[in-house]
Amino acid sequence: xAKEKKSNTTDHFSAEFVDEMKQVLLSEQEKVQGELAKxxxxxxxxxxxxxxxxxxxxxxxxDNVQEVQAYAVNKALEETLEKKLRDINAALxxxxxxxxxxxxxxxxxxxxxxxxxxxxxxxxxxAKKVLTNEA
Length: 135
Known about the structure:
Blueprint: H1 9-12, H2 15-37, E1 40-42, E2 50-52, H3 61-96, H4 112-117, H5 125-131
Helix pairs in contact: 2-3
């Protein structure tokens, strides 16, 4: 019995398109890392992990309240940006592994328009609709 060939990036997308998406992802990666660096410290053991810095406004009670509020906002933003960074890094890894643009659920190519709109996509619109129970 012949083994079914797995679909890969070069079977469905031009090298120019993949390179364009890689540049978009690298640019977005740099932007997200820059945003995180404004209020968080990088974990030296994990490139995708940051820790929001606790701000120091002073020693007065009002200062302490502002510090806690600022930290809470920064922590939520940190988690959102970390998820975005993980998605970007995963997409870049798929480019390196020649699986970028291939739906992880169906093995079929993801529409280029979807990838242009959301370069980190790892699933087709049809597969995503099934997963989220949309009609």
